Amino acid sequence: MRRFFLCLLAFGVLVAVSLVILPSFVSSDWMRAELARQLSSSTGSAIALNGPVRLSVVPHLAVVAENVSLDAEGVTAEIGEVAGSVTFASLWSDRLHVREVRLTRPVVTLRQKTDAAAGAPAEAQGTGENQTTASDPLAALVAFLERSAIDQVSITEGTLRQEDSAGTAQVLSGLDLELAVPDIDGELSLSAAAGVEGQRHELTLAVSPLRPLLERKPADLHVSVKSDPALAPGLDEVKASGQVALNANGSYQIRGGQLHLGDETLGLDALYIPGTRPRFLADLSAERLDFSAFVAGDRSSGSQPAGQSGKSEEPAAAGLQALAGFDADISVNVGTVTAGAMSASDVALSATLKDGLLTGKLERLGIDAGSVAADITADLRKNEPTFKGRVVSNGLDITKLAILAGQSVPLSGTLTMDTGFAFRGLGAASLRKTLNVAGVANLQNATLVAPGIADPSMAEVKTRKLAITFDGLDKPVRLAGNLAWRGKSAEIDLQVPVRNLLAAANDGAGEIPLTFGLRMKEATLALNGKAALAGSYTGDANFAASDLGALLAWIGQGGADSVKQFAFNGDLNAGPEGIGFQKATLSVNGVEGSGSGAVQLGAPLKISSALRFKELDLARLAGAPTPGPQAKAKAGKGPAPDAPLDLSSLRSIEASIKLDAEKLGYGRVFAGPVTTTLAVSEGVASLELPESPFYGGTATASLRADASGSEPSIAVKAAISGAASAPLLTDLANFKHLEGALEAQFDITGAGGTTGALKRSLQGSANVRFSDGAIRGIDVADVYNNLIGLMSSGFKQNDNKATGFTELGASFTIENGVARTDDIKLIGPLVRMSGSGQANLPDDQLNFRLDPRLVASLEGQGADIATEGIGVPVMIEGSFAAPRIYPDLSGLLKNPEAALATLKKIGLPTGKLGLDELLSGGGKGGAIRDIISGAIGKQPPTEDNALSIEQVIGGATPDNGDATPAPPADAQATTSGVPAEQPSAEIAQPGQQEEPQAEPSKQDRGTLGKLFDLLQ
């Protein structure tokens, strides 16, 4: 700029000289050449007048030259028009009065010296008195102003270019300048305006009066700088004022001045030392500064010139390279800095610029209980300036720190950091490419409020401590700590290369290597792959949740209430539109599988996959509890507890899932291997089971689960052939008393919101046929072979005994969960049975009556199927898991005549045993009715104290409490073939183990004991 002002002075001299030599001009060509020679000689520059030169004498002597060029050391200029005028009277006086010097459309280029050229003067120039004042533009102006008066020097539509040695230029465009020095005892005023990198700056300067300054005495100085757009919100103008003095060494000093930033004022002491390498020193101080007005707005919200896009361009480095042309020392000390509720104390900032090296230091900055210190070093001598530094903070309030920086962030808490940094160049693009950081930062008791979420509980994330560790941006940055969201806490560990992140942010795409871990009580998640800012992820994923339905409800999602345990491990490809997985293993409610598939996000979810299972339990998939050892042990003590049946997740998906399972079933009942497809559409899931191995036989089935209505419903059709019934019925209902090969057809439907309600609603039909099997717990033929003993001692159920059959069949009608039949038919080698009864599924109860009919011979010889009913039915009653299976002997005793006939037909020697007389009432011991009624040796009981037949069989005594007397001695004859001593007539309960018992006394033998004493 010094050379540029010298040019302005040269053109002032041009006007004066031209008017002095005017009378000697003969022709315009000669005049133009002579004028150029004189100007070049007087300024030491090469000046050429390449266009017309016009002279005028009215009203003043004036000269106008077009197309003027200037070439001096480090300065070149091309000027469209130069005009100057002087008054006639001043030509004959000692003081030349220049009315105007006007430059139109000048293009001035200032070229920086090369490093080698700039180095030598820099070593020799020194500072202070060693610098010559001859190079000072204002000092050079003094002698001229002593002999001259200048009303106006102006530049319009100018361009100023400053180029470095590499040709990089910083341009001031639209330069308009006016300089007026009408009187050395008056005021020097300068106003200039120019555009720099999209901003328009206006400068005004006034020195009044000028003579004291030229005589090295203080003069008043006023400087104002305006910018559009503003340098900061509320800061569209910066002013400085004070007393300026010209020192003996040519430097300018301001003492006791003031710097005005909007409404805020700082004390200013400054020193400017001109020369080949100018130097600037300044001390700024204030007791208190309020920056509220400067940070209230958003810098990015300023107006934008029409036709310009919002994309920011990379700033030119030439602006900083210009700082390499001078040296500076600046210090700032402020007692308190406030910005709204934020307050910073003891602010001390210093900056030193020397030989193109800038060193800045924030020595201290206290914010509430925290503090921050920083230093930075910048090398401004190269095309791309380099920066490095360090920031150390302790307990900073993040919100208040953001306010101080003029930003609003959705994060609160305290920040502690110790971080070094380095980067090269200017602007966001260079920063992303070259930034490097090493150190650690900690967030404590922080809260992040995500923007755009109305529900505060969903938007707020808290952390007790979060550590961010940098080991150079070429290595992953690690973020680890504890987060809390919606009442639950989680440990996170994130590693991501920041360099890739910055590059992706610049490109708007690209994938970033990512390692992420999350651990919480309810779930764990591990990712190792690549992610994009657009919201996609590709790589390994490992996720496990103990209750997925509850976890999804926690994050505000539903539709998976029936899914408890869930785990996934495999290759994942996730994006905003859906998720794909390959080589994956997964577990749902303990059902484990593997395969690949895709999920298209939306409503409903669209799922397509191919999965393989070892054991696919549809009950566990639907959320039914897994039957464990304890559940089996408690079987028979009542129906299974009622559990919710939730199929609502079917309404939110559309699926086609190819299944390949070694075992496929429901609960403990499985078929397999099976290959089929599970289809889900409009809330209905359907599964077709092709003919598959099933408990040693085969089975086909069609299953349908419907969640489209108000309550879930199911429909099952199945056909079974040749299945082993014992393990099947054990797995199905824990029923262990039936063996044989099963042929069956089922058609069942039901609906309900719980398993109990579903059982109570079951409707349909079933046909079953067992072949070559047995009913465990009773041997009917053995019952008749030992009928007398059973009448004496009672029946004890024994699972080691069985009634064999070649065929057992029945058809059932199912209504309200109860399966009823009246056509039970059993065909065996020694016995035939018919019967009826029901199985109550909701109450887990059986109630069947089988009427046996023996073949003609107890030995079962021949194929004669003629049978005879004997009035001793077999009862099956109780729970599925522990039914009571026993012969009902009460029929024999309620109808003794029929019993006698039956006993004779089956070959029992009733006469030898004396049963004829006993049953007919002719025996000396009395009629059997009397014995049964407990009247042996006493009067027959009345109706009030008579025993029931069940009590008789159990060996009970009458209500009067009197012991039954012993039978007469002559009635105790022994009979061959009948044991002399019989066990107690107590009837054992089903499931009891037979234990040795002491022989009862005759007083304790009971009614039936007395009966058989008589028979002996």
Q: Would you give an account of this structure?
A:
With 1016 residues, the chain is α+β, with helices and mostly antiparallel strands. The chain is 19% helix and 48% strand. The chain is built from 25 helices and 46 strands. It has a 46-stranded mixed β-sheet that branches. Helix 1 packs across helix 2. It is rod-shaped, with a radius of gyration of 56 Å. Residues 22-26, 115-135, 296-314, 629-636, 857-867, 923-927 and 931-1016 have low confidence and may be disordered.
Q: What structural keywords apply?
A:
rod-shaped; single chain; 1016 residues; 46-stranded mixed beta sheet; alpha+beta; 48% strand
SSE layout and pairing:
Elements: H1 2-20, H2 28-43, E1 46-49, E2 53-56, E3 61-72, E4 75-86, E5 96-111, H3 115-125, H4 137-147, E6 148-163, E7 169-181, E8 188-196, E9 199-208, H5 210-214, E10 219-228, E11 237-246, E12 252-261, E13 264-273, E14 279-290, H6 292-295, H7 318-321, E15 327-339, E16 342-354, E17 357-367, E18 370-379, E19 386-397, H8 398-404, E20 411-424, H9 427-434, E21 436-449, H10 456-459, E22 460-471, E23 476-485, E24 488-497, H11 498-507, E25 511-519, E26 523-532, E27 536-545, H12 548-554, E28 566-574, E29 578-588, E30 591-600, E31 605-617, H13 618-621, H14 629-633, E32 653-666, E33 669-671, E34 674-681, E35 684-694, E36 697-706, E37 713-724, H15 725-733, E38 738-751, H16 755-760, E39 763-777, H17 780-785, H18 787-793, E40 798-815, E41 818-827, E42 831-840, E43 845-855, E44 867-869, E45 874-879, E46 883-887, H19 890-894, H20 896-905, H21 910-913, H22 915-920, H23 928-932, H24 949-953, H25 1006-1015
Parallel strand pairs: 5-6, 14-15, 31-32
Antiparallel strand pairs: 1-3, 2-3, 3-4, 4-5, 6-7, 7-8, 8-9, 9-10, 10-11, 11-12, 12-13, 13-14, 15-16, 16-17, 17-18, 18-19, 19-20, 20-21, 21-22, 22-23, 23-24, 24-25, 25-26, 26-27, 27-28, 28-29, 29-30, 30-31, 32-33, 32-34, 34-35, 35-36, 36-37, 37-38, 38-39, 39-40, 40-41, 41-42, 42-43, 43-44, ...
Helix pairs in contact: 1-2
